[in-house]
Design goal:
Order of helices and strands: HHHHHHHHHHHHH
Keywords: Coiled coil, Membrane, TPR repeat, Transmembrane, Transmembrane helix
Largest sheet: none
Helix content: over 70%
Radius of gyration: 67 Å
Oligomer: single chain
CATH topology of the largest domain: Serine Threonine Protein Phosphatase 5, Tetratricopeptide repeat
InterPro entries: TPR-like_helical_dom_sf, TPR_rpt
Number of helices: 13
Length: 346
């Protein structure tokens, strides 16, 4: 049997032609076979039926279906591409939005940090300004108080100068005036008398080299307990340099070692004539008065020594220590106790 469309032989009674794809109508073939007809008619009629238009309609329908499928497939591809592209764009926009949000958060954090640092700086500057202002105020107050104190002292000194005894014409008289004023705790008069003594002092440095050499020799003799020879050398040294306070003090200490109280008293008067504000000299003078049983004068000398001490609290502690030393005579300890009691009333 052959294909009715292209005439290709159909093997094993195939219905669809392997060459053109035409479908053979088996019913018509059966009908044709069953009709008895002349051989010529049989040959001619199939040729006329081959010319019918029904097979092309079926082929056209298949093409339409194929085209429709391709169109649908194209639409599906386009739609899928659009969906994929849209999803990509959405994902891209979401990622971009996330990046922008993160950047904005970082910028906000940075701005917050800047503002925090600025607030801290302003707070520190404010605190520093307040501290400086407080220190300035305290300094100004202290200066004002000091100026007020100096003015009061100046006025007190001027008043004390008016009350200065007329007989304070020399250093000895001024020294006596200081001791008398200390009895009444008139420390302004004590200060005025000390100024007067300093103004009357005319001692000038001498041959420092010779004096220093003699002083060293005297120190060596004193260490060997040759106090009399040491005293002689110290006096010679003072003749060479009468302004040397160190030599004066060495002489006084050695005179006390030899219990030469009167000479020690005279040496202390010479020291006070040079420097009336030397605390050590007034303390040693109190010792002289104690040995002479002049208790009130000794107490007054200790009060004056305390008044001229650079560190009054430290000096008071030294006075208290003397009262607790057993090697110090009882009379001198009583004098120190009386002086401490008097000082505490200032």
């Amino acid at each position: 049997m052959n294909c009715q469309q292209c005439g290709t032989a159909l093997l094993n009674n195939e219905i669809i032609c392997s060459n053109c794809g035409f479908t053979t109508d088996l019913e018509k073939l059966d009908t044709v076979v069953e009709q008895p007809a002349p051989l010529e008619s049989v040959v001619e009629e199939p040729q006329e039926e081959i010319q019918i238009e029904e097979p092309p309609k079926k082929n056209k329908r298949k093409k339409i279906i194929l085209v429709a499928g391709l169109v649908l497939l194209s639409i599906a591809l386009v739609a899928g591409s659009y969906v994929a592209w849209n999803a990509y764009q959405h994902k891209k926009e979401s990622a971009l939005a996330a990046v922008l949000k993160l950047q904005q958060e970082k910028e906000a954090q940075a701005q917050a940090l800047i503002e925090e640092e600025e607030e801290a700086r302003i707070a520190a500057e404010t605190e520093e300004a307040e501290r400086v202002a407080e220190e300035t105020r305290a300094f100004e107050e202290s200066v004002a108080l000091e100026q007020k104190r100096l003015l009061q002292k100046k006025q007190q000194l001027a008043q004390a100068k008016k009350l200065l005894p007329e007989n304070c014409v020399d250093q000895q008289a001024c020294m006596s005036s200081m001791l008398t004023s200390a009895t009444k705790l008139d420390l302004n008069s004590v200060e005025i008398a000390a100024q007067r003594i300093s103004s009357l002092s005319n001692v000038r440095p001498g041959d420092i080299g010779v004096a220093w050499s003699l002083n060293q020799q005297g120190i060596a003799e004193a260490k060997d307990k040759n106090n009399l020879q040491a005293i002689k050398l110290f006096k010679q040294a003072l003749q060479a340099d009468p302004a040397s306070m160190a030599i004066h003090l060495n002489l006084v200490d050695t005179l006390f070692e030899e219990n030469l109280i009167d000479e020690a008293h005279k040496a202390l008067v010479q020291i006070i004539a040079i420097n009336p504000r030397l605390t050590y000299a007034w303390r040693q003078l109190a010792r002289c008065y104690a040995d002479k049983n002049q208790t009130e004068m000794a107490v007054n000398a200790l009060v004056i020594g305390y008044q001229f001490a650079p560190d009054k609290q430290g000096m008071l502690i030294q006075y208290e220590n003397v009262t607790q030393q057993s090697k110090v005579g009882i009379n001198l300890r009583i004098i120190y106790l009386s002086a401490i009691k008097k000082i505490r009333t200032l």
